[in-house]
What does this fold into?
Amino acid sequence: MLNRKRNKVALAIALVAGLSTAAYAQTSSSLRGKVESTTGVPVTDAVVTIKHTPTGTTRKVVIDGTGVFSASCLLYTSPSPRD
It folds into this structure.
């Protein structure tokens, strides 16, 4: 009887942990890139603005001395089906 109860509790914990991980994995994203001029020289000391179109929120990140920018914990929504 005790083993049966433990198995049910373990199964419930496993299901909740699995579902919460799956839900978390779909709510944020990250973006990394490099900005260069038309001649291939890295653009430095500039700002990249990232816009989440469904909500209109924006996030600004600074390009480093090598032309690289990085942003994490960005809002994520799945793409809408196209007509």
